[in-house]
Amino acid sequence: MEEVLQIGEGLSKEHAIGNGLDLQSIHPRQGAKFSPNLYRWLTLHRRKHRVWTSRVYTDKQGVLWIGMLDLGDLIGSRLYGVLCNGSQEESCCWVRTQGLVEVTDFWPRYMRDGRCAIDTGHEQFFLGDETRWKTDGEERECQWCGHSQVMSRRTETIEHKVWVTA
Known about the structure:
This protein is an alpha+beta fold. It has helices at 36-42, 50-53, 79-85, 106-113, and strands at residues 55-58, 64-70, 73-78, 92-94, 101-102, 133-136, 139-142, 148-150. It has a domain at 13-120.
């Protein structure tokens, strides 16, 4: 039996599904922190199963995958492909994907933090992320999840050597 978030913990009865994802809570109308392309991919009419079967996995190189495992093979896509291409990103059967590890807390973190659950290091730029940061001088705070950063400065000295005519 799969574990599902309890009704009342931010999950309504009509939206409770096998992977713990509350689809309405990640609709792009809920804020810029939610990916319109991921939402479109999950809700593609001819692939309705994605919304309740999709889980997120990571491989040995740290690449994130989305889909479902079937006898050790992944049926799905690279997560960044979905973020870039939306519903146009095809699902494939990826064989020999041994070593995939499910990111078990991905959907709860995505429902809370949006795309910050994908970019935990806050190093990526996303389409529509103009409102992600609130900057105050040398500090900034992520408006999606509350992560803070400070400006770091460094000076580099570069020596250039070139041959020139004497």
